[in-house]
Amino acid sequence: LWTLVFGFFLFYLVDNAIKAASAFRELIASKNIQAEVMSSIIKVGEVALKGNDNFIAVENVALKTNLNKNKVQDERVEEECELEKILLVKSDSIINGLCPDEHTTSLSDDEVKITNVAWMIIFGDAVHNFIDGLSIGAAFTRGILSGISVSIAVLCEELPHELGDVAILIHSGMKLRKALVYNLLSALTCYAGFIIGVVLGGIGSADQYIFALAGGLFIYISFAHMIPDMNGKLEMELKQNFKNGLGIFFVQFSGILVGLVCLFFLATYNEQIHL
């Protein structure tokens, strides 16, 4: 029991530590982006001031040339041409100096968001999948039936979970291929956990502690993520379309009921089932 409680609070701490680290990274990234924007604004202001200085210098030259009556027309035409060239060059430099900074800032902001999401997916799922592998490996040391039953339970939980992770990565702006690669990397820890679970499962009562730790993980995921998401989607659908909301409730209730019935029969008739 205490191992189960320890597993619950362990994954509570891990989950919130990952969220805190991601929030800290976003805060640092936003400060860097603000600094880049301020530096670009200062550069644009300096360019504008230089343009005004050049404009004043051209006006002074034009006034001086007016003193010379023999060259008034030629000097004014030349100065007006120079003025137009200077203003065009400075305006182009302002536009070209501002637009790339805005474009780069936008790209860096998107890249930071994608990086944070991918980082949370990799480390969060890595811990989760490692414990899944531990439980599967320890279950197979008890018997084939136990291993298959635990594998099916993990599959039923992991399939929608992994699909949701891929959907989150794609929604954040990541391409499908890269999202699948990140998801695959986070799933590789399951194999390491499986090997360790097989080794530890044959040592005394270590498998009981592994199952308790994995049970704490599943309980935390259920109460912290799955049930709140299910309730949120159900409430939203009931407000928008009551009939569709009832359909979603029936599907959710049926899934929970089928899972409980399967667990009941596996626990009750475990010794009578032979493979």
UniProtKB/TrEMBL annotation:
Subcellular location: Membrane
GO molecular-function terms, A-Z: monoatomic cation:bicarbonate symporter activity; zinc ion transmembrane transporter activity
GO cellular component: plasma membrane
Keyword Membrane: yes
Pfam family, one: Zip
Signal peptide stretch: 1-23
GO biological process: intracellular monoatomic cation homeostasis; zinc ion import across plasma membrane
UniProt entry keywords in alphabetical sequence: Membrane, Signal, Transmembrane, Transmembrane helix
Primary site of residence: membrane
Keyword Signal belongs to the record: yes
Protein name: Zinc transporter ZIP8
Lineage: Eukaryota, Metazoa, Ecdysozoa, Nematoda, Enoplea
